[in-house]
Amino acid sequence: MAAAAAGPFSLREVLDAFRRCVTEQREVLLEPYLSGWRGLIRFLQSLGAVFSFISKDAVAKVALLEGHQQQHGFVSLQSLVQHELAAGLAALRARSDSGCRTVLRLHRALRWLQLFLEGLRSGEPRTSVLCTDAYNASLAQHHPWVVRKAATVAFCALPSRDAFLEIMNVGSQEEAVAMLGEAIPYIGNVYSITQELFTQHKLLDLP
Ligand SMILES: CCCCCCCC/C=C\CCCCCCCC(=O)N[C@@H](COP(=O)(O)O)[C@H](O)/C=C/CCCCCCCCCCCCC
Q1: Would you say residue 178 has pLDDT above 70?
Q2: Ligand 1: which of 45, 52, 54, 65 to mutate, most ligand atoms within 8 Å of CB?
Q3: 43 C-alpha to ligand 1 centroid (Å)
Q4: What is the pLDDT of residue 52?
Q5: How far apart are CA 3 and CA 37, in angstroms?
Q6: What is the per-residue pLDDT across 73-101, written as a single tens digit (0 to 9) for each?
Q7: Count of domains observed in the chain
Q8: Do you know which InterPro entries this protein is assigned to (predicted)?
Q9: Is the pTM of this model over 0.90?
Q10: Ligand 1 pocket by C-beta < 6 Å: which residues?
Q11: Residue 202 domain-assigned (yes or no)
């Protein structure tokens, strides 16, 4: 499946992808953006079947964006937004397969990731608590009750903080925490630029 290439998870690769995302003109490049997501999905898939309903949704969204990227040759999120908005906001809102609505879902998930990684870095050992708090402060408000319920049940199966730091494949715990400190601002930067772009074009509530 193109959206989830094989190979072990490496936080360094994800960090590099999100670092490569932002240009000097504050554009968000689609290729590294999707590459970062593919790396994250690989991690999620390694956590087992209890998370497969989440990884399947993320894989489908990345695959949809890969399709749009290949079909139209978009280089950046900005060019994707510009292209889809050319048909008018009403037409865009009526589409269920638009790149914009799909990016919006991943964008909200990126906020979850930022908060979750900040929590991991803080030293709180209960990953399910960290994950639930990050989820409630980001994605949860956009999900129906049944999805919220399934997600919070799945969070109880998360590995410990120590296991998380190990799976990052970065080295010692201290090195892993240092890399989290490096990664969070890059992810935050991609989030902020996308948030500005979607605010500017009134796209933050695409159905
Ligand atoms: C060393 C630490 C690294 C942490 C790595 C984390 C890896 C996480 C990888 C992927 C995150 C999942 C992204 C999920 C995107 C969800 C998008 C969404 O909101 N989809 C819903 C709406 O879609 P439409 O119906 O409108 O098309 C859809 O209903 C969602 C269904 C699935 C439930 C989503 C719950 C998301 C919970 C947050 C992720 C938790 C992962 C925990 C693993 C640490």
Answers
A1: yes
A2: 54
A3: 12
A4: 97
A5: 8
A6: 999 999 999 999 999 999 999 999 999 99
A7: 1
A8: GLTP_sf, Glycolipid_transfer_prot_dom
A9: yes
A10: 11, 40-41, 43-44, 53-54, 57-58, 105, 108-109, 112-113, 131, 135, 139, 143, 147, 151, 158, 164, 168
A11: no
- Would residue 77 count as lying in a domain? yes
Residue 71 lies in a domain: yes
- List pLDDT tens digits, range 112-171: 999 999 999 999 999 999 999 999 999 999 999 999 999 999 999 999 999 989 988 889
- Evaluate whether residue 103 is within a structural domain: yes
ipTM greater than cut 0.90: yes
The domain that holds 80 is classified in CATH as 1.10.3520.10
